[in-house]
Amino acid sequence: MAEIVLEGITKRYPDGALAVKDVNLTVGDGEFVILVGPSGCGKSTTLNMIAGLEDITEGTLRIGGDVVNDRSPKDRDIAMVFQSYALYPHMSVRENMGFALRLARTDKETVTRKVEEAARILDLTEHLDRKPANLSGGQRQRVAMGRAIVRSPKAFLMDEPLSNLDAKLRVQMRTQISRLQQRLGTTTVYVTHDQTEAMTLGDRVVVMRGGVVQQVGTPQHLYDQ
Ligand code: ADP
Ligand code: ADP
Q1: Is the CB of residue 100 less than 8 Å from the CB of residue 77?
Q2: Buried b (16+ CB within 10 A) or exposed e, 31-50
Q3: How many whole angstroms from 158 Cα to the centroid of ligand 1?
Q4: Is 69 strand, coil or helix?
Q5: What residue's CA is closest to ligand 1, atom 25?
């Protein structure tokens, strides 16, 4: 059970900027929700509050039924994928993907099994022994996703994961992400300003504007309007 529930979530930055205003949203267990809207509308701030990277000014955040407002990011059991890959350059793909598991003292065989399983899903098997410098942008982004999925988190949070890639790769990666989410069934919140991603990737789209939720619906429902 990894429902994410935002109740009256508000963010005021220390300089006084009101970035997110009274957002109410439930992301169902296994659901794939896209947060979309123009630059500055509060998407990243909302995602960062779910991740625990920004404090919540007002409101209640629940993940899997627990109130997590005061929990550190690592105690929320979520995995985040950013547009910058932040891979460790001196480590191979295999080492990058297994890093968090090794840190958590997972036994060697389990690390190998989980890394190889993730590599299969993400078409990275033949690249496991390469260093990030020898990979394409799309491959690096897949390694970043692999690193997230090996931990089997309760939820994935993705912030514009495709925005550094060229158009052709973005199309390929959209397919990969859909496949991955369907296969794993992990609750996912995905931030983008790209309408195509919003309309093709998720189960439900949340349109934000000026820090508030303006519309919520299935892609089909929003498209028909
Ligand atoms: P988006 O992800 O939709 O582009 P953000 O969540 O990054 O929007 O930003 C929402 C609003 O909050 C913007 O007006 C932005 O300028 C402001 N903001 C973002 N980060 C900070 C910060 N660290 N301090 C002050 N204001 C911020
Ligand atoms: P993708 O499979 O992500 O679409 P590309 O089509 O961009 O990757 O890359 C094709 C091949 O070229 C891949 O096997 C990749 O490993 C290799 N490649 C891409 N960029 C580099 C690089 N900077 N250094 C070495 N090999 C690279």
Answers
A1: no
A2: bbbbbbbeeebbbbbbbbbb
A3: 17
A4: coil
A5: 13
> 47 CA distance to ligand 1 centroid (A)?
11
pTM across the whole model? 0.84
**Encoding tokens for residue 110?**
């389990």
Residue 156: both structure tokens together: 């994935």
Sign of the Cα torsion 23, 27, 28, 34 reads positive
Which ligand is closest in space to the CA of residue 207? 1
Query: Rounded distance, CA 160 to CA 177, Å?
Result: 12
CA angle 121/127/128 to nearest 5° reads 80
Hey, whose CA ends up nearest to atom 20 of ligand 1? 45
**Owner of token pair 């939820």:** 155
pLDDT tens sequence across 133-188:
999 888 998 999 899 889 889 999 999 988 888 888 888 888 888 888 888 899 99
Residue 3's nearest CA partner among 68, 57, 99 is 68
**Please, what is the end-to-end C-alpha distance for the chain in angstroms?**
33
Between the CA of 136 and the centroid of ligand 2 the distance, in Å, is 4
Most confident of 14-18, 98-102, 151-155: 14-18
Burial grade of 87 (CB within 10 A; 0-12, 13-18, 19 or more)? buried
State both tokens at 14: 């220390």
| Residue whose pair of structure tokens reads 């897949």 in the numeric block | 142
Beta strands in the chain (DSSP E): 4-12, 18-27, 32-36, 58-63, 66-67, 78-81, 155-159, 187-192, 204-209, 212-217
